[in-house]
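Blinded run. Sample ID left blank on purpose so nobody reads anything into the name before looking at the predicted structure. Input follows.
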Amino acid sequence: MRRTLLLSALLAAAAAPSLPAQTPPPARAADTLPIVALPPELDRVLRDYERAWQARDAGGLATLFAEDGFVLSGGRPPARGRAAIRERYLRAGGPLQLRALAYAASDSVGWIVGTYGQTAEAVRDGKFVLALRRLPGGRWLIAADMDNPNGRPGGPPPPAPPPAVPPPGAPPPAVPPPPAPPPPPGA
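Blinded prediction complete.
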C-alpha cells in the first residue's frame, strides 16, 4: 500500500506542468539594503519631513499630510487628520535622517519604504512606510506614515521562570497544620 501511494505521488508530480525553480533571494541584514535615489518630487516629501522634524514644527509636519492622513506609530493608537497629527507631533522632533530603500508611484498614489536615524551613520535605527497621494496640482502628500524602531525598548523580555515541579519520588509538599483553636475564655 505504501509503495502504491509513493508511486502515485511520483507519477502525479511528473505529470504536473513544470514550474521554473524558485530560488529565494539571499537573506540580507537590514543594514546592507541599498539606499535608492528618489525622483525629486518624492524626495521633497522626505526632505520636508526632515526639516519640519528637526525644527520641532508640529504644524509644518501636519501640512505634509493629506487632510485625512494617518500617523501609525508603534505602541500608540492611530492619529487621523491634520489636527490630530499636529497634536501627536507637539512634543516630537530633533535630529533626523531619512533614507529610501524602495518606492513606487503612479498617477495619484505612491509609497516609500525607508530607514531613519538621528545621524547619517545611524540611519538604520528604524524603518518606515509612507503611503502617498498626489494632489491634482502635482504635489505629493502623506496619506499614512507607519514607523517603528529596529530594537525593542529595554531589550527582549526576560524568560519566564520554570514551573515549580517536585522531582519524581519526592514527598508531596508539606501541608501546614490547621491553626490551633483559640484558648477557652478565661484561660
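Unblinding after everyone has recorded impressions. The first helix runs from residue 2 to 15.
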